[in-house]
Amino acid sequence: MKVTWSLRDGSKKTADVASGTNMMEAAVANSITGVVGECGGNLSCATCHVVVDPEWASKTGEVGDFEDAMLDATEAERANTSRLSCQIIADDTLDGLKLIVPI
Ligand code: FES
After folding, report:
1. CB 3.0–4.6 Å: which of 16, 50, 60, 76 could bond 99 by disulfide?
2. Residue extents of the structural domains in the chain
3. Which ligand 1 atom sits closest to the C-alpha of 67?
């Protein structure tokens, strides 16, 4: 599946992501500036914060309770469709996913 990240500097980057990979891992593997993933996907850092393009928000699943609490501690201000990208797992239904990196 393909994922496109929109970066803070206005550029975009698209990459192929294998099913089962989380979007933090995919961003780090593709050197996406602004997605760090300091805790390795353990829901304890919030450095993997992304904003899901609104047209994709319903397809990326529900925000978990703990994720919800962590989203209040992101560096960039939380948006309506903010997610911790380590909690979004690639699968074929997300082919074409667009993510916005807020920092
Ligand atoms: S990588 Fe730390 S919360 Fe997602």
Report:
1. 50
2. 2-100
3. 3
Residues at CB less than 6 angstroms from ligand 1: 24, 37-39, 41, 43-48, 84, 86
Question: What's the burial of 75, exposed, middle or buried (CB within 10 Å: 0-12/13-18/19+)?
Answer: exposed
How far apart, in whole angstroms, are the C-alpha atoms of residue 2 and residue 73? 29
Atom index in ligand 1 nearest the CA of residue 47 equals 2
Q: What is the pLDDT of residue 17?
A: 98
CA of 24 to the centre of ligand 1 (A): 7
Q: How confident is the model at residue 90, as a pLDDT?
A: 97
| pLDDT at residue number 14 | 98
Mean pLDDT by 10 residues, the chain (103 residues): 97 98 98 97 96 97 96 96 98 97 95
